[in-house]
Design brief:
The protein is α+β, with helices and mostly antiparallel strands. It contains 8 helices and 6 strands.
C-alpha cells in the first residue's frame, strides 16, 4: 500500500495527462472556492476571476516544468517568478479610492496574489502545500474577517465622514468632540457629494481613548448640531 502511494505521488509530480488533469481540477476547485467567498461579499474579483488566476498560474508552472524536463533547458522557477511579480497589475486594478477617501479592494488584491501563489504550488506538484495554503487563505478571508471587524470596532482611531448644513456648524462640532473626549487627529474639508447642494463635508480621523465601540461613538456624534449626514468609514 505504501509503495503504491509512492508510485502515485511520483506520477502526479511528473508532467503527464494524469497529473495535469489533477492539477487543473485542483486549481479550479481551490481557486473557485476562494473566489466564491469574495463574490458573496460583492467584491471586484470573484468566483471566475480567482479560478482563472489560480488555473493560469498552475498552467504556467506546469509549462515551465515541462520545458525543463523535456528539453533540459530553462530555469524551472523562471516563469513562476514572473507570475508572482506580474499578478500585481491585476491586483492593483481591484484597489479603488472612493470620493470619501476610502480605500477598497486591498483584501481582494492580496487574495489574487495569494491564489496565484497557490496555483504555482499546484503547478509544480506541491499538493500538500497547496491544500494547506488554500485552507489557510480561506480561513483568513472568512473566520479572521469577523475578528478583524471586532478589532477595528474597538480600536482607538475611527474615521468618519460628516456633512453639515453649512460651514458655521463646524466649530460647534469640534467643541462637541472635545466635550465627549474625542480628539481630532486628521481632518480635510470637502464639498458635499449631493449635486447642487451647498453643504460642507468633513473627513476626520478621531482618537477614541476610551475605546468605545464605533457604533456607540457614531450614536453620540449623530447628536451633534447641524449634522446632515454622518458615516463611519
Amino acid at each position: 500500500m505504501g509503495e503504491d502511494m509512492i508510485n502515485i505521488m511520483s506520477i502526479l509530480k511528473e508532467v503527464n495527462i494524469v497529473s495535469m488533469t489533477v492539477k487543473v481540477l485542483l486549481a479550479m476547485i481551490l481557486g473557485g472556492s476562494l473566489g466564491l467567498e469574495r463574490g458573496i461579499k460583492n467584491r471586484p474579483a470573484g468566483f471566475r476571476t480567482y479560478m482563472l488566476v489560480c488555473l493560469g498560474a498552475t498552467l504556467v508552472m506546469s509549462t515551465n516544468q515541462y520545458v525543463y524536463q523535456t528539453f533540459g533547458v530553462s530555469d524551472p522557477t523562471r516563469l513562476g517568478a514572473q507570475v508572482v511579480s506580474g499578478i500585481g497589475f491585476l491586483g492593483a486594478g481591484t484597489i479603488m479610492v472612493t470620493k470619501r477617501n476610502q480605500i477598497k479592494g486591498l483584501t481582494t488584491a492580496a487574495g489574487l496574489w495569494a491564489v496565484a501563489c497557490l496555483g504555482l504550488a499546484i503547478g509544480i506538484g506541491f499538493y500538500s502545500g497547496a491544500l494547506i495554503g488554500g485552507l489557510a487563505i480561506f480561513f483568513a478571508n472568512t473566520v479572521l474577517h469577523t475578528l478583524d471587524d471586532k478589532i477595528r470596532n474597538k480600536g482607538m482611531l475611527i474615521d468618519i465622514y460628516v456633512e453639515f448644513k453649512n460651514i458655521s456648524h463646524i466649530s460647534g462640532f469640534l467643541a462637541f468632540l472635545h466635550k465627549n473626549n474625542l480628539e481630532v487627529k486628521d481632518m480635510s474639508i470637502n464639498k458635499a457629494q449631493i449635486p447642487g447642494d451647498e453643504h460642507v463635508a468633513l473627513i476626520m480621523t478621531l482618537d477614541n481613548p476610551r475605546r468605545m465601540p464605533h457604533d456607540e461613538v457614531m450614536n453620540i456624534l449623530s447628536r451633534g448640531e447641524g449634522i446632515q449626514y454622518i458615516e463611519d468609514l
